């Protein structure tokens, strides 16, 4: 896999008049958000990849000797002492004079760039976010299999954890059980920090689980995902503890209609803006437009937020084998909120919703 992806990446680099690319992943970074893993298959927490015109070299330390050699194919692996960046000074042949290397400015610190310029003083480093911007958007067959499995795990874990929902239970306890169930079902780790937000906290789009206890009549928003071979799912469901009020049912049904409208719009050739507009119109025309502040969705893959974006500002065009979330919401401060989210595979003629978990309003 790494050989094919590096070959494709070289073509993009050549189109930008670049001789190569340097990617760094450090211990301080979350390994779930690693371009290195997507390109090479390496899942460790520290590594450096140098892609040149004719060869590719990977640097890591002795903690990952066996792992790197097992996971990385078609790339020369170097096990170095200390910092991989510092070790580059001993590999001057990889950076001849005036060699132009692209760098991922979104994930490179000022300190790291300074070190690069010091150890390879004759090389030129150029921001190349455009060459990296759409990596992994279009999924291969194997990638789709991993995502489907992650979605299946999420759906099953959600159905299992519902038995824990009752007044007096802490949001954190539900999150812990949900993550445990996903691990038991085959997830490597949570795709992101699990959101369990109840009552007034359900109006927080990113209300990660807290010590708040569930109360009768609360909305409870579950936003979570599994990880399979580095690929993630991202699902949101909102339920009610006990019987739903008329207002809760109204808000829920508006969001559900908006989500279904967005999904209906998903197909190859459609813009992310058009999908967002289809969902947003339902909420706006119902009088709740000011309570929907975020985009309708985003791509998922080797981490949880990649392109294409589904938002009012998006110029992205959907292609077959993109996988996107469709997740409109209404959030009313001090009262509560609703979000419903599915992972959706884009096809040539339409789309396929991967999630099977019910979207009927559950009153538990």
| Overall mean confidence score, pLDDT | 94
The rough form would be described as elongated
Residue runs with pLDDT of under 50 for 5 or more positions: none
Strand order of the largest sheet: 4-3-2-1-5-6
Q: Whole-Å distance between the termini? A: 46 Å
Report the CATH topology name of the largest domain. Answer: Creatine Amidinohydrolase
Radius of gyration: 22 Å
CATH class of the largest domain: Alpha Beta
What does this structure look like?
The chain is an alpha+beta fold. It is built from ten helices and 18 strands. The protein has two domains: 2-132, 3-Layer(aba) Sandwich (Creatine Amidinohydrolase, Chain A, domain 1); 141-353, Creatinase/methionine aminopeptidase superfamily (Creatine Amidinohydrolase, Alpha-Beta Complex). It has helices at 2-15, 35-40, 65-71, 84-87, 110-119, 129-132, 141-161, 171-184, 246-265, 272-285; strands at 20-25, 47-51, 56-60, 76-79, 100-103, 124-127, 195-198, 219-224, 227-228, 231-232, 235-240, 297-299, 306-310, 323-326, 329-332, 336-339, 342-346, 351-353. Strands 4-3-2-1-5-6 form a six-stranded mixed beta sheet, sandwiched between helices. Strands 7-8-11 form a three-stranded antiparallel beta sheet, with helices on one face. It is elongated, with a radius of gyration of 22 Å.
């Amino acid at each position: 896999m790494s050989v094919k992806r590096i070959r494709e990446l070289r073509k993009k680099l050549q189109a930008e008049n670049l001789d190569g690319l340097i990617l760094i992943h450090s211990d301080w970074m979350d390994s779930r958000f690693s371009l290195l893993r997507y390109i090479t298959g390496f899942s460790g927490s520290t590594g450096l990849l140098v892609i040149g015109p004719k060869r590719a070299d990977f640097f890591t330390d002795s903690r990952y000797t066996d792992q790197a050699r097992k996971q990385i194919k078609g790339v020369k692996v170097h096990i170095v002492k200390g910092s991989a960046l510092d070790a580059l000074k001993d590999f001057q042949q990889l950076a001849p004079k005036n060699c132009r290397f692209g760098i991922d400015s979104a994930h490179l610190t000022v300190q790291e760039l300074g070190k690069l310029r010091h150890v390879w003083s004759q090389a030129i480093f150029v921001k190349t976010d455009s060459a990296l911007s759409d990596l992994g958007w279009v999924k291969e067959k194997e990638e789709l299999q991993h995502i489907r499995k992650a979605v299946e795990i999420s759906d099953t874990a959600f159905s299992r954890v519902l038995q824990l929902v009752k007044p007096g239970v802490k949001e954190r306890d539900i999150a812990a059980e949900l993550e445990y169930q996903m691990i038991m079902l085959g997830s490597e780790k949570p795709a992101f920090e699990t959101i369990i937000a109840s009552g007034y906290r359900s109006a927080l789009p990113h209300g990660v689980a807290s010590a708040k206890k569930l109360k009768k009549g609360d909305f409870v928003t579950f936003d979570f995902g599994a990880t399979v071979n580095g690929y993630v799912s991202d699902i949101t469901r909102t339920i009610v503890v006990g019987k739903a009020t008329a207002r809760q049912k109204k808000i829920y049904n508006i969001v559900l209609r908006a989500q279904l409208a967005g999904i209906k719009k998903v197909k190859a050739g459609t813009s992310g803006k058009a999908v967002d507009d289809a969902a947003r119109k339902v909420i706006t025309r119902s009088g709740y437009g000011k309570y929907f502040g975020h985009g309708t969705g985003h791509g998922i893959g080797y981490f949880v937020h990649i392109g294409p974006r589904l938002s009012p500002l998006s110029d992205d065009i959907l292609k077959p084998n993109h996988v996107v979330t469709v997740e409109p919401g209404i959030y009313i401060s001090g009262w509560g909120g609703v979000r419903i989210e599915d992972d959706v595979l884009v096809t040539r003629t339409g789309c396929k919703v991967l999630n099977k978990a019910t979207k009927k309003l559950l009153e538990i």
